[in-house]
Design goal:
mainly alpha
Length: 259
């Protein structure tokens, strides 16, 4: 599940505009644009100044505040500076956009996700989990504010999927399993009306199979892997390039169980 991709879909559907490409930070003093904001999984967080700009542009605010990040040399310090920037961005949004439109709340959710990714990159798993919880709380609060509630539901399922990966990394298998069950339930409902979201359902089933394998629940694990495989087989004819690796991974995961 790609939370950033879900955000792009919501943004473009609500505004009718292309999602803005990353730009240099509004504050030119941080030097933070020069490093790679990516986890080993490839998930990337955005520059906090860019997130702040997105929020104020979407709110049609007459002001565009600046955030000043500490000047640091080392990559770890830059990630810490990003977290400071994200907290400043959230404070400014609360102070200067008190009656914000729902699309700005989506940027707030994205900021919490960015914080979760940065915290995880720094190795602070409790901090990452806390940021995910804030994203989930905010996401749940705006579900009824969009013309198509499936957009936010799909975003929420993706957040559950990402948080479950983090819980798995700290060996909270029961917590991860519970979140994946929620993600699957949401995705099942959404895909009835939006079949393009089937890959998210497949990803949740695949990851649940892995958690169940670790919990020693072999039959249930195989059932979950089979479901992921069957979904991806159907998707393979539509988009072989993007689906093939996921399908192969599901087969490999199932083979591991059958050893």
């Amino acid at each position: 599940g790609d939370a950033a991709g879900e955000l792009v879909h919501i943004y473009e559907d609500e505004t009718g505009q292309a999602y803005p490409r990353p730009e240099p930070p509004i504050s030119s003093d941080s030097g933070s644009e020069s490093y790679d904001r990516r986890l080993t999984s490839g998930i990337q967080w955005r520059d906090p100044a860019q997130r702040l700009k997105e929020a104020f542009l979407l709110a049609r605010s007459p002001v565009l505040p600046r955030i000043e990040l500490p000047r640091v040399r080392h990559t770890k310090g830059k990630a810490v500076a990003d977290l400071i920037g994200f907290r400043d961005a959230l404070r400014l949004i609360d102070e200067l956009i008190p009656k914000r439109p729902p699309i700005v709340d989506v940027i707030v959710i994205a900021i919490f996700l960015d914080m979760a990714f940065a915290e995880e990159w720094l190795g602070d798993m409790p901090g990452a989990i806390a940021a995910y919880d804030q994203a989930i709380e905010c996401c749940e609060s705006v579900r009824g504010k969009f013309p198509d509630p499936d957009q936010i539901q799909s975003f929420l399922a993706t957040i559950y999927l990402n948080k479950a990966k983090t819980l798995n990394s700290v060996n909270d298998l029961d917590g991860a399993d519970a979140l994946l069950t929620k993600a699957i339930r949401i995705s099942e409902s959404v895909t009835v009306r939006h079949p393009e979201e089937l890959e998210n359902l497949a990803a949740a089933c695949n990851n649940k199979g892995e958690i169940l394998r670790q919990l020693g629940k072999t039959p249930a694990s195989l059932e979950s892997y089979d479901r992921a495989i069957n979904i991806r087989k159907k998707l393979l004819a539509l988009d072989p390039k993007s689906v093939a690796s996921g399908l192969a991974q599901a087969y490999l995961n199932k083979a591991e169980v059958l050893k």
